[in-house]
Amino acid sequence: MKFHYEFDIKKLPEPITHKDKLFLIGSCFTENIGEKLKRSGFTIMENPNGILFNPVSVAEAITGYIENVSIDEKDLFYLNEGWHSWKHHSRFSSITAKDSVEKINTATGNANSFLRQADYIMITLGSAWVYTLTEKALNARVGSIAGNNHKAPSDWFNRKLLMLEEVLKVLDNVIHRIFLFNSKARIIFTISPVRHLREGVIENNRSKALLIQAVHHLVDKFDKLFYFPAYELVIDDLRDYRFYAEDLVHPNYFATQYVWEKFVDASMNEKTRSLIKEIQSIQLAYQHKPFNVASEQHKKFLKSFYDKTAALVDQHPYLNLEKELAFFKSGL
Known about the structure:
Blueprint: E1 21-26, H1 28-39, E2 43-46, H2 55-67, E3 77-79, E4 82-84, H3 97-117, E5 120-125, E6 129-133, E7 157-161, H4 164-181, E8 186-191, H5 201-221, E9 225-227, H6 230-238, H7 253-267, H8 270-286, H9 296-315, H10 322-330
Parallel strand pairs: 1-2, 1-5, 5-8, 8-9
Antiparallel strand pairs: 3-4, 6-7
Helix pairs in contact: 2-3, 2-4, 4-5, 6-7, 9-10
């Protein structure tokens, strides 16, 4: 018997390898995949502004990286004993404006450098619902879209669903900006399977449908754009609440692992998949908790994985396994 519906996924014409640099931006699902890429030995940068859900905030962030836009303290606002930016996640907030500005500008500068060299840019869109700032919002341009609400009062925002034309315009523009900035870049679009039920079930489906339509229009238009069906894998393939966390909103470990395996199969060749397995065995050893760190058995274990890791780095010098090598060496 079949208990889920599997479908074919179009493979990337140029598979991703460990030599490639991958830039990821978008919803919290971006960070699920980003963590798996990091643990598999890839060179990545993810969400330099923090998690962003809507296409306007994503496009504004990418434009900011390309232009290497710096901010200063006048661009922040003070709320609940902290300084915040309307364009950034709360992880960039701080009890001092100076510290927040420093974190934001450092992240932007690093993103500028990385984005210029990126081979693949993965954009995950979560929602077409946006929250525009009202005249009550502190230090805000009325009508501009907040990337994060920072638990501000509800009357600081107006909610609206973007029109298809608005999404197409903002994404089309940022795609052109990316290709002018980095002509070798290829872009992979995904739609997050995270359900935005705070908007309502019908409203969430309207939003996802709008994003899917916009993205496919753009993928058909540009040669270096691709679509990976993360949303469809969870919604149509797995299609069961047992693959969601208790909140019934976020895909659980088994769902994200399933999507990851499908992504690897669709975007990487056999040589890269084999290298991932070797790196994952090193990661398991790196996370191993011994009963007795001073035992000869544990020292032999560390020596074995130090030699294995060093040999792998010699063979693939673009792999960043410095912390693993240092860990294995420290116990010898």
